[in-house]
Specification:
FAD; FAD/NAD(P)-binding domain; nine-stranded mixed sheet; NADP binding; alpha/beta; 30% helix
């Protein structure tokens, strides 16, 4: 334990942050910059900073959001890649941790198992489990005025992994991307990647560089669009302007463009779809377009981005192929499809998705009464009804996660300062019975549909609505009143 950590031993803390990924380190930076008098700790279940970008190690791991919006407003992205690799993103997060001093306030290998709000004491009582050198688990107890959940929305312990008929017959390796084997050698081997989402379209071109052939086997197609690996405007601005100003202009450019194309896709779905498919056709050549023509409207599910059209290039060159069919069963040498066709493989990768969980599987209670996540209503996408002094970070589905994470961290700091000014101990939003429930996410993606009984609800009117709109959120969250008539203090 460092001297800096020892200084935090007296309880209670002002803020306890769960998770040292992009959101958690961003929250710590906001606290250091805007509430320097606040004492905080970060509990991280892993042994490293990075969250998602430390967990996933599969070939080609990258963001499908541009890095000028996935990065924070105060920390310019200087790498020349606009669509960045996982290791580069992890290094960026580590730099913020160093710059803000958050690195000294992290306790690694602490898995938070429960958190109970005590109204009498006006604080969270948190239990975490750590493993000592002998392998024995030990409990640690923390108390904090505020709880800041930055653990994301999917399970680190298991991905979504459907069981396929006759899997045991396959003589090769079956791998889930979330648990990629270290030093896996797939050079010269035949690979089948099951899936059509962001993970699959990343894996296929990455593995096709050395594999004998890679087949992307999908049940239904996704929308796939090309994005430039490098942002020419950003590079030009950085040559002629101060770095921070260039970063800010590029960030806003990308925010407006993303919002513009999203609105076009939602308001004119047929025209947008036609344009996307035309772009795919011009890049992929003589390939049956049924493999790239979804049966749903654009942005009913997340659109997959491929930098410089790498997936299309590999399909065109014959290094990769796309097959649209369902699985009848596994065989000794591969997969038999419902159509009767057989695909041969040495390695099968099940890029079948994530398993959504609630608050990192932390058991949350209020005065000893269990708090069921799916029975709560989300307030501005940041707090939960009838749960005091807790902030939850949940990013956008149609834009970069960090845009909402930064707004959330800034709001948390505003709320803390407001409470200090008025000597309040508790801030809570009470459920309004007149507000009608709606699904938390208006998305048809499998992982969202499977999580219908896990995610909270949103309401049919403000401030209970979850806006997938950064510009609207920036106005209401950053500049709206803290004491808005819905938030209650005592």
């Amino acid at each position: 334990m460092t001297q800096e950590q020892q200084a935090f031993e007296p309880v209670p803390l002002d803020v306890l942050i769960i998770g040292a990924g992009l959101s958690g380190i961003g929250a710590a930076h906001a606290l250091s910059a805007q509430c320097p008098d606040k004492r905080y700790l970060i509990l991280e279940r892993r042994q490293a900073i990075g969250g998602t970008w430390d967990l996933f190690r599969y070939p080609g791991i990258r963001s499908d959001s541009d890095m000028y919006t996935l990065s924070y407003s105060y920390k310019p992205w200087t790498n020349r890649k606009s669509i960045a690799d996982g290791p580069d993103i992890k290094r960026y997060i580590e730099e913020i941790a160093e710059d803000s001093g958050a690195i000294h306030n992290i306790r690694f290998q602490r898995r938070v198992v429960s958190a109970n709000w005590s109204s009498e004491r006006a604080r969270w009582e948190v239990v975490a489990v750590t493993t000592d050198a002998s392998g024995q688990e030990q409990e640690e107890h923390y108390q904090a005025r505020f709880l800041f959940s930055c653990s994301g929305y999917y399970s680190y312990d298991e991905g979504y992994r459907p069981q396929f008929p006759n899997e045991n017959a396959f003589k090769g390796q079956i791998i889930h991307p979330q648990f990629w084997p270290e030093n896996l050698d797939y050079s010269g081997k035949r690979v089948i990647v099951i899936g059509s989402g962001a993970t699959a379209v990343t894996l296929v071109p990455a593995m096709a560089k050395t594999a004998a052939h890679v087949t992307m086997l999908q049940r239904t197609p996704s929308y796939v669009v090309t994005r430039p690996q490098r942002d020419g405007i950003a590079q030009t601005l950085q040559k002629w302007m101060p770095l921070q100003a260039a970063h800010s202009l590029t960030r806003w450019k990308n925010v407006f463009l993303t919002q513009f194309f999203y609105r076009v896709a939602r308001n004119r779905p047929e025209q947008f779809k036609e344009r996307v498919l035309h772009m795919v056709k011009t890049q992929i050549g003589d390939v049956d377009m049924k493999h790239f023509t979804p049966d749903y409207k654009p942005w009913d599910q997340r659109v997959c981005a491929v930098p410089d059209g790498d997936l299309f290039r590999d399909v065109r060159a014959g290094r990769a192929s796309v097959v649209t069919d369902t699985i009848d069963s596994f065989t000794e040498t591969g997969i038999r499809l419902s159509s009767g066709e057989e695909l041969e493989a040495d390695i099968i990768v099940t890029a079948t998705g994530l398993k959504v969980n609630a608050l990192g599987d932390v058991t949350v209670s209020v005065d000893g009464a269990p708090m069921l996540f799916n029975e709560r209503m989300s307030y501005k996408g940041m707090m939960l009804s009838d749960v005091p002094n807790m902030i939850v970070t949940f990013g956008y589905t149609n834009a970069s996660w960090t845009l909402k994470a930064e707004l959330t961290a800034n709001y948390a700091c505003r709320l803390l300062r407001y409470m200090d000014k008025h000597n309040y101990r508790e801030a809570v939003v009470r459920r309004d019975a007149s507000v009608q429930e709606q699904p938390f996410l208006d998305f048809t993606s499998g992982y969202v549909q499977r999580a219908a009984n896990v995610l909270p609800k949103q309401g049919d009117r403000a401030p209970w609505q979850l806006h997938q709109n950064y510009l609207k959120d920036k106005f209401t969250i950053q500049y709206g009143r803290i004491d808005d008539g819905v938030m209650q203090f005592q």
